[in-house]
Amino acid sequence: MAWNSLRTPQKVLDVLWNIDEMESEGEGCAESDDDDEIEDACELSWSFGPDLDSESDFKAECKEDPWEEAGDGPVWVEESGGSTRGKARMFQKMRTPSGPTSYAKDNITSPMSSLMCLIDAEMWEIILKHTQAEADRNNAEHFDLTADELKAFVALIYLSSITGGRRMKLNDYWSEDFGNLIFVKTMSSDRYKEIMRYLRFDDKATRASRIKTDKFAMISEIFDKFVKNSKASYTAGENITVGEQMFPSKVCCRFTQYMTNKPDKFGIKFWMAADAETKYMLNAIPCVEKDHRRAPDQQVSDNVVMQLVEPFLGKGRNITTENFFTSLDLANHLLAEKTTIVGKMNESRWAMPPCTRTQSERFSTTVLKSGKVTLTIYQAKPKENVCVLSTMHQTVSFDKTANKVPDSVYHYNSTKLGVSALDHMVRQYTIKGHAGRWPVAVFYNILQLAAINAHVLYRQCTNVNTNRRKFILELVKEMCEKHRLAQRSREMERKRLLLDTDPDPLCRPAKRRQCQIGRCSGNKTFGICGTCRRIVCGRCSKPAPKLCCECL
Fold first, then answer.
1. Is the pTM value of this prediction over 0.85?
2. Which DSSP letter does residue 96 get?
3. HSE (CB half, 13 Å, CA atoms) of 156?
4. Which of 35-49, 79-93, 387-401, 471-485 has the highest mean pLDDT?
5. Do residues 344 and 199 share a domain?
6. 357 and 412, same domain (yes or no)
7. Rounded to 5, what percent of the chain is helix, strand, coil?
8. How far apart are CA 529 and CA 92, in angstroms?
9. Over the range 466-477, which residues count as b (16 or more CB within 10 Å of their CB) and which as e?
10. Which residue range forms the structural domain that includes residue 542?
11. 8-state DSSP, 294
């Protein structure tokens, strides 16, 4: 190699970054008989040209190509930017089309079928099984929850999120002044509270052993299946945003957090990856405990990002990260997986050069490079600059406006709001109260994320342009339909059996009378037991035929 031709630090860095250790095939390990050759090689490795005999000559030579060293960190070399917008990509553009997968396209024809791709029949069966088991454990009489009734219960949760939201009291949904007719026709408030009381998502018999290794064990099975179905139903686009979501809740659990920079200060935090264009939730990890699989020398933020984007590596995608996640080590790890990164970086990080802490002329841009990583320092305000780390932009150019915005900063601004927008959409239609247990609060978050993803899938599979509120209303109608049909059929059957057992309606009391069974709190009713002919209320009887609990 002609070491004498490497007259600038930038050229030396480019050569060192492009060296392939496997090309020598052991040739470089051969012993040299001449010690002078080794000494000459060492001298050449530290000299940047034949005419630079002193340190002062080296600094004078670097004036044309200035460089900075970030303490014990990397060496940054300043480069000049272009004049027009454009970028030189590290990898070829992703060729896989984004959007719903073939599985989703074949199954989605309505809002309900769209939701079933994310919360499938197996998940409904798990919730139904453990809820019924909890009711049996507490000796709840005549609970008998069905799959259709469970879906109707979830439909009322969706309906309450878009009608009353976080401020309305639960009993007001059934009131004459503020209530909704769908609530009254679907189920009573007592039945709704009864289902909510026994709602469970895991097996209580094995919970003690599972919670030792999984703090999220009370709902981890449902959460993991939902994330798996979300990834299987949608192909991520070219740009993925990584961030954090704070689901508002003040339930008592060890991982409820307080964050001053969030609209809702208290809540349960999730790490998330979302599609930057459609805001589709691609992957999520609950922030509940320390990850013991993380390497000792790996930062928490780097570990979180690599876990979230692992299913999407190797396709030429770009990851947009916020200040907490962006680091030089993460950029190099993603480059090894053929994935680029564009992220804002704090000037106080160890890898940042000293020039990031100095002020320059407004709307001016400084471009630094360390290997294949580009750092853009844009003076957006008189006393504040923006530092964007990028491996996507090998050359940085500017637009033709007066602000002269670099294309790396422009790309970051256009893709940074994926998870933040998703978090805002969840908080827009959510239920803050009515959940005294943290698994129920997480279940609410799953429902809201499922509604957002289902809306994206439905619009792209059916080409129907509808807003999210109308989509949820149609979803509620579909989820309640089978349960209300079953209710009407049971009511008709009950009336028919009642007429068969009581052919003479005139023998029934003219006014409501107190229940004669004595297992209730003295309810008044028109009902008569078909066997013993005593007055019996609904709580002390079987729905059809009308038989008191002593005659069953």
1. no
2. S
3. 28
4. 471-485
5. no
6. yes
7. 40, 15, 45
8. 77
9. eebeebbbbbbe
10. 502-548
11. S
User: Which two structure tokens, joined as six digits, stand for 440?
Assistant: 């129920």
CA distance 503 to 498: 8
Instruction: Looking at the structure, tell me whether residues 401 and 343 fall in a common domain.
Output: yes
Whether residue 76 contacts residue 360, with contact meaning beta carbons closer than 8 Å, is answered with no
Does 85 reside within a domain? no
Banded model confidence at residue 46, pLDDT cuts 50, 70, 90: very low
Domain assignment present for 78: no
Q: Are residues 293 and 200 in the same domain?
A: no
d(CA 298, CA 300): 7
Q: How many domains does the chain have?
A: 4
Whether 278 and 317 map to the same domain: the answer is yes
256 assigned to some structural domain = yes
Q: Which residues have CB under 8 Å from 426's CB, separation 6+? A: 245, 247, 445, 448, 449, 452
Up-side HSE of residue 490: CA atoms within 13 Å toward CB? Answer: 10
Q: Is residue 395 part of a domain?
A: yes
389 and 517 together in one domain: no
pLDDT in tens, 403-453: 888 889 999 999 998 999 998 998 888 775 566 788 998 999 999 999 999
**pLDDT tens by residue, 118-142:** 999 999 999 999 999 999 999 887 8
- Write the DSSP assignment of 339-393 as a string of letters: -EEEEE--TTSTTS-GGGGS--STT-EEEEEETTEEEEEEEEETTEEEEEEESS-
pLDDT of residue 498: 59
The mean-pLDDT minimum among 291-300, 497-506, 526-535 falls in 497-506
Range among 256-265, 348-357, 401-410 with highest mean pLDDT value: 401-410
Domain shared by 481 and 512, yes or no: no
One-letter identity of residue 498: L
Please indicate, yes or no, whether residues 271 and 415 belong to a single structural domain of this protein: yes
